[in-house]
Every structure is written in structure tokens, then in C-alpha cells.
């Protein structure tokens, strides 16, 4: 009998059905779990399910019954993988579930920012159209997507899917080599060259010690003044204060951000504090969240549990 505990069930919308595991089990779930509640809730668990709840070495070392951590997402930075590897705890994650949802969100942000839809919407709200007394007005530049250059950092399934959509829109696509690498793999362009040449730069790499603040003040200054930055990867990939400064100083033209260094982001977050900027488009970590994608995630999550209990674990990290 497996004891399964889902620590943050509300990260999956209520209308999305979770299939039943096909083995004998007890199922316990909580809408959310605060750090001080993790240990007590997992005390009897043999399988822990977590989307964003942190499971560090201190917590894991006090859970002798735990055999598996099933991450209900792709990112793994909330689980101490080294500890799990050293102590025989299997960790699985979710893969390939948002290969339509995230790319479409990125493309939507591209168009909204490239055509300055937010700026024009705000202008109408504040009466600029009425003041101009013209059938149309041009207070913000409007640029085409066709013929522009898309720089992609991260060449996994999401990066590849976005490249396919971008090419269909007439964009040139550049995949960035890893930052600081002296040699460039075939099919890739040096990191700095991509940053400098891209009209739109989109991030799809994991958050690690090496990629933290991957885009900081130096990189933002390297970008074209007309360029856009889109981050649907992880918040920590971008220096958020540096990004706000770059937008205000005209170092880049606009930014679309779906992920934040701390989530939910509060009013102290530099991006949230400047959400009024007409060239800053914020969404609350929902790029992945089309119903079809979330249902795929839910199905794969339970399949990961089934395969582990049946002795054939999959999506192991």
C-alpha cells in the first residue's frame, strides 16, 4: 500500500481530472502547503507529489519512508536532487506537456509587444485618441514580426516548437550556445552574438547556478534598443531590477514576463511595481496553462506514479 501526498493540489485547476493510480494506495491532498507544514504532512508518505513546494535535504532526511518524489512540473529546482540520488529516492518530472501552450503564449506576447497593443490600449483609456481628433494615431512604434530575428536560449522541446512557429511567421531563428562556451556547436550561434542580433530574445532554459541572472545589465545593454525580451522559463534567469531599468532607459523596447523570482510576486517585486509601463506585459505563470496542456500534465503525473510502482520508472531526473 503506497501512501501518496500531493502537497499543492491547487496548482492544477479543479476542473482538470486527475486519473486514479492503478495500484493499491491511500491518497491525501492539500490545496497548498506552507514550509512549516511539509514535514508533518509527509511523515507517513511513500510518494510525495509537489509542483512548487520545496523539498530540501533537511526535510528529506527526516522522511525515512519516502521512496519517490513526483514533481508535477518540468522544473526541478524545488527538490534537492543530489540528496535524492544519494539516498535512493526516485524523482520524476513532467515533460513535453506544454509544447503548444507555451509557444503560443510566447508568440502572443511577441505580437502584443511588437505592435504595442498595451500602449495603445492605455492611450485609449486615458483619452489620447479623443485628444488627437484623428481616425487613428501613432504614439508608439508598430513593427512587423515577419523578417525579424528570434533568438532562442534553450533548445529543448519548447525552444524547438517556438522555432517552428517563428519560421512559419517569416522569422529568422538563432539558437544560442551556452553562455561563456569557447566553442560553438553546429546549429548554434555564440551567446553574445544572439543577444546582440536578436530582435526578440526568448528564454527556455532551466534555472541552475550557471543560469541564474543569465540576462543581467550587461546583456540588456548589448541588446538592440528596438528589441524585446520574453521570459516564460524561470524568473531567476533575469535580473528583474536590471530589466525594469533597461525598459525605463530605453535600452530595450519591451518585455513580456510570465515567471518571477518569487511566486506569487508581491508589490515589492520590481516588475510588479512597474506593471503600469506600456512596454511591460506581465502574466502570472500561466504560459503553460492551456486546459489541454494541464490535462496532459495530470495524465503523465499519474503515469509516472504507475510506472514507478510497477518497477519501470520514467521521466527520472
Descriptive overview:
- There is one protein chain.
- The chain has about 325 residues and is of the alpha/beta class.
- The chain has helices spanning about 40, 55-60, 80-85, 100-115, 115-125, 130, 155-170, 190-195, 215-220, 240-250, 270-275, 290-310; strands at about 1-5, 25-30, 45-50, 70, 90, 150-155, 170-175, 200-205, 230, 255, 280.
- The protein has a six-stranded parallel β-sheet with strand order 7-6-8-9-10-11, with helices on both faces.
- The chain is elongated.
Helix content: 25-40%
What global shape is seen?
A: elongated
* Count of alpha and pi helical runs: 12
What is the N-to-C order of secondary-structure elements (H for helix, E for strand)? EEHEHEHEHHHEHEHEHEHEHEH
Distance between the termini: 24 Å
Trace the largest sheet across and list its strands: 7-6-8-9-10-11
Q: Which consecutive residue ranges, at least 5 long each, have pLDDT under 50? A: none
Strand-pairing-aware structural class: alpha/beta
In terms of DSSP E residues, the strand content is 5-15%
Quaternary state of this entry equals single chain
Overall average pLDDT: 96
Radius of gyration: 22 Å
The main pleated sheet reads as: 6 strands, parallel
How many strand elements? 11
Distinctive features:
alpha/beta; elongated; 317 residues; 6-stranded parallel beta sheet; 32% helix
